[in-house]
Amino acid sequence: MEKKMTVRAAAAQIAPDLTSREKTLARVLETIREAAAKGAEIIVFPETFVPWYPYFSFVLPPVLSGREHLRLYEEAVTVPSEATDAVAAAARERGIVVALGVNERDHGSLYNTQLLFDADGRLILKRRKITPTFHERMIWGQGDASGLAVVDSHVGRLGALACWEHYNPLARYALMAQHEEIHIAQFPGSMVGPIFAEQMEVTIRHHALESGCFVVNATGWLTEEQINSITPDQGLQKALRGGCMTAIVSPEGKHLAPPITEGEGILIADLDMSLITKRKRMMDSVGHYARPELLHLVMDGRATQPMVGSAHSFEANTGTKSDGQYDVSADRDADQRVAVLRSQAG
Q1: Exposed site from 204, 205, 235, 267, fewest CB < 10 Å?
Q2: Is 129 one of the catalytic residues?
Q3: How far apart are CA 257 and CA 247, in angstroms?
Q4: What are phi and psi of 113, to 5 degrees?
């Protein structure tokens, strides 16, 4: 793949539709078209944007959140599905890389999932947030390290983390060690207040400097009407304002355009990819500035499974052959082993 010297990036700060996955998805597709018309080659959407971030779980006690939690299950995204097919088609049609946060439903569990679609529409990464934060643990399951992968795309090498995963230095280092060039950051936005935006800015600028990569960060936006629909309590409503920092940061830690901190909009900036080498010439955290003989990261990148068994273990322990057929002789063998053990014990 030919290396691009300049990449036009976009970060979307828009409001979801809190009533319908399809209506939020329509907003996503419309925004993809709008960003592509402005020359964007990659666009980043906020954390779990489809169907919406579970703001209710931040302000409602668990005993009152069941109805909204079940509604989130019904509106969540399965992968693959018609919803992901629609995003893939939009990426392919417009020739744009799309980073989309979704609530992913996998049978009886929900996950905070980041989807990366290449410019040809292929899904090149599906990863789940490894540890949901605070109230989120009531909503989502945990991901695993199989998603801590940097992937090649039309615009360069991409890595992704969601929200407070950026406070896990080893998760960030795992992506740095794979030489990410553009880092996808996604936060919910419209939460906690101005301090959340300030902390977010420090976090993404530091990662850009430490990794020597570009960071494209997107946060969501809630309207006053939406805030009122989540809770009528004016005291609790204060927790659903502020906290927006949609930004694009260079490897030198600089904003490439004024960040969007309130309202809706699409932030666009051109990434001069030569700045990566310029930064790493001075300080390459996973190269000439590293000391792997002193400090190094060990990561288990295997996907976790609720049940794992080899063909041998199934044949020996369950009587099921590797071809799926049940072997009745396994029962006789098991009976004989028990008889021997009893004889020895007696």
Answers
A1: 235
A2: yes
A3: 7
A4: -120, 140
Please identify which of the residues 104, 136, 163, 213 carries the catalytic annotation.
163
Q: Please give the Cα distance from 103 to 122 (Å, whole number).
A: 19
Task: Provide the CB-side half-sphere exposure for 278 (13 A, CA).
Answer: 10
**In degrees rounded to 5, what are phi and psi of residue 13?**
-115, 95
**Phi, psi of 220, rounded to the nearest 5 degrees:** -90, 170
Helix (H, G, I), strand (E, B) or coil at 22: helix
Of the candidates 176, 243, 183, 240, the residue with the CA atom closest to the CA atom of residue 210: 176
Helix, strand, coil shares of the chain, percent, nearest 5, are: 40, 20, 40
Element at 44 (helix H, strand E)? strand 42-44
Q: What is the pLDDT of residues 245-290, one digit of tens each?
A: 999 999 999 999 999 999 999 999 999 999 999 999 999 999 999 9
Which tens digits make up the pLDDT trace of 146-183? Answer: 999 999 999 999 999 999 999 999 999 999 999 999 99
3-state per-residue secondary structure call for 113-124:
EEEEECCCCCEE
Active-site annotation holder among 41, 47, 136, 165: 47
Q: Of the listed 129, 180, 181, 213, which one is catalytic? A: 129
Q: Say how far apart CA 327 and CA 319 lie, in whole Å.
A: 5
Q: Is 38 a catalytic residue?
A: no
